Amino acid sequence: MTATVIDGKAFASRVRDKVATHVARLKDEHGITPGLAVVLVGEDPASQVYVKSKGKMTKQVGMLSLEYRLNADAAQDDLLALIADLNANPEVHGILVQLPLPGHMDESYVLAAIDPAKDVDGFHISNVGLLGTGQKAMVPCTPLGCLMMLRDHHGSLSGLDAVVIGRSNIVGKPMAQLLLGDSCTVTIAHSRTKNLADVVRRADIVVAAVGRPKMVSGDWIKPGATVIDVGINRTDDGLVGDVDYASASQVAGAITPVPGGVGPMTIACLLANTVTACCRANDLAEPEGLTA
Ligand code: NAD
Predict the structure, then answer these.
(1) Which terminal CB of the chain, N or C, has fewer other CB atoms within 10 Å?
(2) Per the residue annotation, which of 18, 98, 173, 182 is the catalytic one?
């Protein structure tokens, strides 16, 4: 068997088109321009690249893009004051504080200062709680992108066995909640899981979010399963995922490549979350298919 390749790049482009259409409608019919504010503290090179491409894509879909930079040695209170201003700014519908923050700042304290309604990363404890209790939340972008691709491929996910490898707050846990919300039978595996290969072999859906190059090999995969590879690992062979693509793609029914799979969906979902937040703030209908 050779797996169907789930093309995240093309999928993300369709999501951005949908966002752009909705943004145009908000402008034309309501005179509202959705706005996303991105805050970068310090000069981490990877973060600078992410922030730049977020700004570029925000503008491309017709939204207002605001960028704020603080020095690496800025006081946490300065960052909190900026977040308070953005919370109060009616032009801003989404706020993203680029992580990681410098060591002298308390990440959870800073994230808790963001208005949950503008928390387009979905990391605020209120949104975590809303998602965990099956209520309308802002959903973390990477797992939201994975869910969109799974729904598109399978139609209904109801009753499928899903194994999520990784239990981080950013990917693994929200991914598991989303799959549960779509009525999968969900197992979360992690670094202490015994017989991981056997656990993965039961799955109709495997989501790998570990950060270990090519850890999941083809002989762990149930024939025909769908494999979503979240991992981004820089190696001497270039960028590789957590899944050994060469062997897994011979067994799986469908698989996301790295690069070109989950990665492009993350920023597309950030834009989707911003438009959703804007609609919710203005009591307007949300675009279909862009939320969980
Ligand atoms: P993390 O380091 O916070 O969590 C990794 C998880 O993997 C942990 O829960 C740990 O228990 C588990 N783990 C570690 N070793 C394991 C092992 N041997 N067996 C089973 N489980 C093991 O990482 P994260 O933030 O969740 O990110 C995971 C990967 O996804 C990374 O490669 C990261 O770069 C990538 N990522 C990609 C995107 C994207 O947009 N595509 C977004 C976020 C993260």
Answers:
(1) N
(2) 98
